[in-house]
Amino acid sequence: MADKELTFWDHLDELRRVLFRVLGVWFVLAVGYFIAMPWLFDNVVLAPCHNDFIFYDVLRYVGKVFDLHDDFFTQDFHVKLININLAAPFFIHMSTAFWMSVVTATPYIFFEIWKFISPALYPNERRGVKKALCIGTVMFFLGVLLGYFMVYPLTLRFLSTYQLSAAIENQISLNSYIDNFMMLVLCMGLAFELPLVTWLLSLLGLVHKSFLRKYRRHALVIIVIVAAIITPTGDPFTLTVVSVPLYLLYELSILMIKDKKTDADETDEDKEE
Fold this sequence. Notes:
Elements: H1 8-45, H2 54-65, H3 71-74, E1 81-82, H4 88-104, H5 106-117, H6 123-161, E2 172-173, H7 174-191, H8 194-203, H9 209-214, H10 216-230, H11 236-256, H12 263-272
Parallel strand pairs: 1-2
Helix pairs in contact: 1-4, 1-5, 5-6, 6-7, 8-11, 10-11
GO cellular component, one term: TAT protein transport complex
Subcellular location: Cell membrane; Membrane
Protein name: Sec-independent protein translocase protein TatC
């Protein structure tokens, strides 16, 4: 593509090949996840339901080290799901395999996007787009991992043991569990895109470093509110483990972007040109 000028139809033909490759990779992953789903469901998706989940071990270790006897750090935790919909297991099997394949295929999709658009970009634009795609991919997966290993287990422990009345027994349905699992894990993945979004907004001139520094305290309040919504628990520990990563992302956003150019800076650039 870089050696000669391509026509409109050449670009469409190249786009068609890209789409076929992406769909092929996605289909292979989806079939693989569908076949492996019974094992993945027991050992990955349902892992936060069992007392031996790694994050619960961490909580018990923290409680032992600091001599904390609260139920939050010492309780044995088990959740048993029920199914009240005849077709739910089959459709959840398919949808979970689909979403897992989409998430894991994301790096390859970004790679194909990069290969397709890079010949049309200037060198400085290539560096910016490549940086954005790499950072976006890494941050998304970091958010997904944090959501899976920390945020969702905390939320599950709180909501599954919360009682409005002693006369009401909590029975969690399979559909409810999967809906909350997917929502929280993907929300954390998207939340970790904050530095990338901020960087792109700075390129458009909508935000700048001094603006983010000026409203740092306001951002902290908003982050705590968002953390309370994502994990509706009442204890300070839960709010802390969610708020701290989000606030660090805010500080990372400040480091990633440049400050607004002053009139003097613009005059100096004009003179150099």
